[in-house]
């Protein structure tokens, strides 16, 4: 993965627009957050292999970036994106890693389903 | 306490590295005593968050990394019967409960273990740990001749509710194997091992204790976590 360069990532996002694509979106604090700090309110969300078709995808802001996908009837967005890569299977993998190297958010787009 | 001889030991945990911290010394000792040990690892830890910054893996490449680490940990313990059960990290509690019990029942019927090690229900913190523990207890509950069931418990209220562990194994003779099992899972354990080495150098007895003893609770059937299932 490399650090997001807005112009380069924007090109990649554009390439997946107006196609049926598989989405992976997750945000998490890890399952142990409330074990280590009992007052911590642990929330997260996970979506994998839901098909969407976005008409416009945009990466904005300084790092950590925000990435939004505009759908005909709705939105998908992720906040905290720091890194990305177009992997060897042509999938666009975006991730937000905190200072300790822990994944905090992932947003991934692929024309083929992600593995189970 | 020396480790009693068993016919066959079945270890069931959901994540690669769950075996390393709490039970790798016990597993190694059983193997050295000639007892067959099977480790059924339910997921590949696909949702692990320690991916580094800069990242050394992606969400999609992590399962392959962790699969290799799990195999390396098995090698470090001398374990030859490693089962990867194909479930997905952080989804076990959402699986069909009866399907989970069947998975455990199938393993038990095939292997006929005299002892099973898993997490202790309600004291295992992570939702996957809890779901795994529930499935194992439910499967064993239905058996006529129940094997010994040892639970690993580490919730903050464990000692308050369960008291001190009633099974403590001295594993200092296989300390190196335990260390190597933990090191095998380097993508998850790097920062923790660094902190541990530091504490050991300072002569921290709590850390030293952790490498010399492993603690379990005999499952308390008279205080079963649920009445029926």
From TrEMBL, chain A:
Pfam annotation, one family: DUF1806
Top-level taxon of origin: Bacteria
Gene3D superfamilies in the record: Hypothetical protein YojF (2.70.180.10)
InterPro entries per the UniProt record, alphabetical: DUF1806, YojF_sf
Name the record gives this protein: DUF1806 domain-containing protein
Upper taxonomic lineage: Bacteria, Bacillati, Bacillota, Bacilli, Bacillales
UniProtKB/TrEMBL annotation, chain B:
Parts of the chain that traverse the membrane: none
InterPro entries given in the database record: BshB2, GlcNAc_PI_deacetylase-related, LmbE-like_dom_sf
GO molecular function list: hydrolase activity, acting on carbon-nitrogen (but not peptide) bonds, in linear amides
Domain of life: Bacteria
Signal peptide residues on this chain, from the entry's feature table: none
Protein name: Bacillithiol biosynthesis deacetylase BshB2
Phylogenetic classification of the source organism: Bacteria, Bacillati, Bacillota, Bacilli, Bacillales
């Amino acid at each position: 993965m490399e650090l997001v360069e807005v112009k380069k990532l924007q090109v990649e996002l554009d390439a997946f627009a107006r196609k049926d694509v598989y989405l992976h979106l997750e945000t998490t604090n890890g399952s142990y957050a409330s074990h280590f700090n009992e007052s911590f309110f642990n929330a997260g969300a996970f979506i994998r292999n839901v098909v969407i078709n976005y008409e416009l995808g945009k990466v904005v802001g300084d790092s950590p970036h925000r990435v939004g996908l505009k759908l005909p009837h709705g939105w998908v967005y992720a906040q905290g994106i720091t890194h990305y890569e177009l992997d060897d299977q042509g999938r666009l993998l975006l991730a937000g890693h905190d200072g300790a190297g822990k994944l905090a958010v992932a947003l991934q787009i692929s024309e083929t389903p992600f593995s189970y | 306490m020396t480790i009693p001889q068993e016919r066959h030991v079945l270890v069931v945990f959901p994540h690669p590295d769950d075996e390393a911290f709490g039970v790798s010394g016990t597993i190694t000792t059983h193997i050295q005593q000639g007892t067959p040990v099977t480790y059924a690892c339910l997921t590949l830890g696909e949702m692990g968050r320690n991916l580094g910054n800069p990242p050394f893996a992606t969400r999609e490449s992590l399962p392959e990394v962790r699969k290799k680490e799990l195999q390396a940990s098995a090698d470090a313990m001398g374990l030859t019967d490693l089962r990867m059960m194909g479930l997905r990290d952080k989804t076990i509690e959402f699986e069909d409960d009866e399907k989970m019990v069947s998975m455990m029942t199938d393993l038990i019927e095939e292997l006929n273990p005299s002892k099973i090690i898993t997490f202790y229900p309600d004291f295992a913190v992570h939702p996957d740990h809890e779901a795994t523990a529930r499935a194992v207890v439910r499967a064993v509950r239905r058996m006529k001749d129940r094997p010994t069931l040892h639970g690993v418990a580490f919730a903050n209220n464990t000692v308050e509710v369960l008291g001190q562990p009633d099974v403590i194994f001295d594993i200092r003779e296989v300390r190196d194997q335990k260390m190597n099992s933990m090191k095998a899972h380097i993508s998850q354990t790097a920062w923790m091992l660094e902190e541990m080495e530091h504490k050991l150098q300072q002569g921290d007895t709590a850390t030293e204790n952790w490498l010399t003893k492993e603690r379990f609770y005999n499952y308390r059937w008279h205080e079963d976590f649920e009445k029926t299932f």
